[in-house]
Amino acid sequence: MRRTLTYAGLVLVVLTVLLWLTGLLGPLAEALQAAQRAAQERMAGAIRALRGGEPGALASFWAICFGYGVLHAAGPGHGKLVIGGYGVARRVPVGRLTGLALASSLAQAAVAVGLVYAALAVLGLTRTAVEGAAENWVTPIGHAMIAGLGFWLVWRGVAGLRRQARVSGAGQHQGHGISDHGHGHSDHGHGPAHHHHHHHDHDHDHGPHCTHAHGPTVEEVERIGGWRDGMALVAGIALRPCSGALFVLVLTWQLGIALAGVAGAFVMGLGTAMVTVAAALLAVWAREGAFLGLGSDGVARAMPVVQLAVGAVIAFAAGGLLIQSL
Known about the structure:
Layout: H1 2-21, H2 26-51, H3 57-74, H4 79-90, H5 94-122, H6 127-180, H7 218-238, H8 243-254, H9 258-291, H10 295-325
Helix pairs in contact: 1-9, 2-3, 2-8, 3-9, 4-9, 4-10, 5-6, 5-7, 5-8, 5-9, 6-7, 6-10, 8-9
């Protein structure tokens, strides 16, 4: 039963990708966009009610912000692709991937707040100018960073395949040498004493009790690379601020209820995080289903191919969005 449930995640992801590639998810995306427009109109009404001091207006406003965040994340966007693809390609623990999903959504809200208040308070721009700055400057940078993360995964995949080829070639060479020169040293009358060499030119003994650090371990390198990848992932998603958050922040600023708008932007971020966290969990579910039964050696051989494929998809998708945004 457990094995069946593990495979189910992989099947679900494959079906979703097939539906997306065939365009069958188009009507769903259009329905979500229509729901977002309706929610934005309701947010405007809630903001006016809040400005008028109506009872319960603040709770209603934040509830609409949360719902809008869910709708925004459920619609077309690169955040889910990046979180999900990264979770599959890097075999990140589910807790860390969930934290990255939450951090990216909240960072997205923070970028929206910083952008709006820098534009309004410092530069005195209008709402249209703020949204234009987001689309023309901030968003392309985010797409470029995500594309860079994709190329980084491709590079890791290629490096992993090369490493496997070197190890395989060395193993074949060693086996060939043993078969061609299979006679022992005793055939030539050489005993162990003839091959006992003393090296006195070393500064210290590299024996089993040596405490000298000869370089970072594989685990340390993976940990550093993982955090660098994670920071690039969060930054890339964060630099694509939600249009709904920009709308809320500008309107509440103009009506003199700025703090409620800032809180609303972060509540919207929590709504977005609900979907990105779900994408993270689904990615881990699908990944473990794909690797089930491979064993540690099989997973080690498969990971470079997975990193190469997923990195190429992320780089291609982000590159397409970057071209569109320029």
